[in-house]
Amino acid sequence: MSEQTRSTLELHDIQRGVLSPRPTPYAATYILFRIDDREQGRELMRRASAVVTSAADTVSPLGETWVSIALTYHGLRALGVPQESLDTFAWEFRQGMAARATALGDVGESGPEHWEAPLGTSGVHVVLVALAPDSALLEAAVDRARPAYEALPGVTAVWRQNCHALPTETEPFGYRDGISHPAVEGSGTAGSNPLETPLKAGEFVLGYRDELGGIQSTRPEVLGRNGSYVVFRKLHQRVALFRQYLKDNSTGPEDEELLAAKIMGRWRSGAPLALSPLRDDPTLGADRTRNNTFLYERDDSAGFTTPCGCHIRRGNPRDASVAGEPRLHRMIRRGTAYGPPLPEGVLEDDGADRGLMFTFVGAHLGRQFEFVQSQWMNDGVFFGAGDARDPVVGAADGSGDFTIPRRPVRRRLAGLPRFVVTRGGEYCFMPGLTALRRLGELTG
User: Are 168 and 59 a contacting pair, CB within 8 Å?
Assistant: First the structure.
């Protein structure tokens, strides 16, 4: 295969859910399936290849609406993919998320033994994701995909999670979400930070050169080419606990909002501390052309403006030289809220399940998702913070702390509780459309 072919993204063969930023607002649903009959599972792949939206299809009769299909390792096995081919997929993918729980910090109440059934088990084979600007269009998208799995008694829907993105673009803790999106060479979609050099396509899609010059592939190549590894995680958010902790550790409403900003790295409006260090700026927060245009190293290497251990700086250190080269750990990350919002000002848990369906997309499960989760979110050594964990999503046990650099005396928050609990998840592979058809043509 020529270098030109390797470097030109085949958008028509890549699922749209890999590269396209999501519209605002939108509704989404995740439907999980188990394959009990191999031939009917293959028929599902043939049908799915006709309804899945490609990255080249940016004009849909249903608007900003698309359907994506991903498979777990157990799903590929259920379809009869030969073991010699399965062995060429990433070893983390072959193990599955539940087996990687300790490395990911999914322990205690976040451990797989407490996950929602059947998440994390061998009974999850296929994940269908549908997304649309509103609930009516979402159901239309699901209806369009329904013929792909209905009338196949050997394929069973085993779990569903409906999600939504509010017009305010906020997640359950109240922060504007979905702001940062990397630029990918050849995707035709601009990144959210014009100061960031586009990343090589091979960081996110198999079959192309990555930042190290390598090419991730499978045997046969067609099975992996134009595909991506995808991580789905259901994360329950303890909103009342988060609000109470902020209130208990602040001197008043203004200080509470400053504390919330220091923990996250942004004000709740989305305005980054890097550009608005002293007070919130909702106009800046809502401006997609400005709210992500910043770096850290030149002006704030010590973290006096944006704490080095805050959530967004851990997840994307940008130009900071922590743990070598941050570009090698860059991810496409998306989050979609689920459950009813907790009414404003309420400080007591109402018992409702609410949180975020987290999605990672990339070509390197180990050095992208797992590295960020284990080394940046659940350890602080790279940020000069010892064993301190991420103050928002870290695997806290009530004994951790968070330090906010300031002069003349730093501010230290103690006794951080666990604000986010893992309710389950899956490591998946989202094949290219050609690969979907090939999976439907398997024999034996």
Answer: no
> In sequence order, what are the residues at sequence separation of 6 or more whose Cβ sits closer than 8 angstroms to the Cβ of residue 3?
none
Same domain, yes or no, for 162 and 138?
yes
Residues 241 and 285 in one domain: yes
Number of domains in the chain: 2
Fill in the amino acid letter for 350. D
> Cβ distance 73 to 88 under 8 Å?
no
- Cross-strand partners of 401: 414
Which two structure tokens, joined as six digits, stand for 196?
Answer: 């960031």
pLDDT digits (tens, 9 = 90+) for 171-214: 999 999 999 999 999 998 889 999 999 999 999 999 999 999 99
CA–CA distances in Å: residue 275 to residues 33, 49, 290: 45, 44, 9
Asked if residue 220 has a cis previous peptide bond (ω within 30° of 0), the answer is: yes
- Contact indicator for 16, 361 with CB cutoff of 8 Å: no
> Which residues touch 360 (CB under 8 Å, ≥6 apart)?
229, 230, 231, 331, 332, 333, 368, 369
Q: Is the full-model pTM beyond 0.85?
A: yes
Alpha carbon dihedral 58, 199, 93, 355, in 10-degree steps, equals -70
Give the integer Cα–Cα distance in Å for 311 and 428. 25
| The pair of three-digit structure tokens given for residue 182, joined into one six-digit string | 């990397």
Residues 282 and 216 in one domain: no
- Report residue 124 as tokens: 């999850």
Q: Which domain holds residue 339?
A: 236-421
Cα–Cα–Cα angle for 429, 432, 433, rounded to 5 degrees: 130
334-357 pLDDT, tens per residue? 999 999 999 999 999 999 999 999
